[in-house]
Structure formats: C-alpha cells, structure tokens
Amino acid sequence: MEKMSPHALEQIAAYFKALSDPTRLQILRLLGEGQYNVGEIAQRCNFSSANISRHLSILNRHGLITRQSQGTHVFYQLTDESTYALCEMVCQIIERQISVQKQAFA
Q1: DSSP 3-state of 65
Q2: What is the pLDDT of residues 25-69, one digit of tens each?
Q3: Best label site of 46, 60, 75, 76, fewest CB within 10 Å?
Q4: Which domains are present in the chain?
Q5: pTM of the model
Q6: At what angle do helices 6-18 and 49-61 cross, to 10 degrees?
Q7: How far apart, in Å, are the Cα atoms of 81 and each of 47, 53, 65, 97?
Q8: Is 79 helix (H, G, I), strand (E, B) or coil?
C-alpha cells in the first residue's frame, strides 16, 4: 500500500471490520449469487429476519451492498463484485493454510 492518510486508513479498517463477522460473510456469499430480500436471506442462512436486517444495515452503511425497492419488497445485492472476489480470495488462502496445517500433523 502506498502512503495513505489516517482518514483513509480508518475507512479501510471500517470496511474490513464490516467483513469480520461470519454472518455478514455468509450474507455476502449468498448475494454473490444474486439479489434477495430479507426473508429469503434469513431462510437460506438459518437466522431470524431481525438478525439479518441488522447485518444488512451494517453492510449497507459501509457501501458493500445496495438495496432496491420492488413493490412491497426490498431486495439487496452486492454493490461491487470485487467484494465477492475479495472474500473468495481470502477463503482460498485460508483453505490452503488449513491444508498445510493438516499435512504438518499427518
């Protein structure tokens, strides 16, 4: 990373903090498949709608997702596909680390 202002670094840290919750990561992975409403997300993630709404609010506040009203429903989708790509990249790194650790103890 090139030199960045303290404000920019705070924004980057806030972005990663929004990604630091397993439920939010699960939501982002689901939204990588398409757009869903709160009820659909809750059902697919096995959480209450209230819990999912709280996490969606955090993701929306940090610009990771957008919401779009369609009639009486609100649908959520990723703001930028690079967020999904970032999550996938980190997942692959962790999978490799776990594989190496398993081999070390085999």
Answers
A1: strand
A2: 999 999 999 999 999 999 999 999 999 999 999 999 999 999 999
A3: 46
A4: 6-104 (1.10.10.10)
A5: 0.84
A6: 160
A7: 24, 21, 10, 25
A8: coil
Task: Assess contact for 28 and 64: CB atoms under 8 A.
Answer: yes
Among 63, 83, 70, 62, which residue's Cα sits nearest to residue 35? 70
Dist CA 77 CA 36 (whole Å):
7
Provide the b/e sequence for 61-80 (b: ≥16 CB within 10 Å).
ebebbeeeeeeeeebbebee
List Cβ neighbours of 14 (8 Å cut-off, separation of 6 or more).
Answer: 62
Dihedral sign for Cα 55, 60, 66, 67, please: positive
The tokens describing 17, both together, are: 């903090």
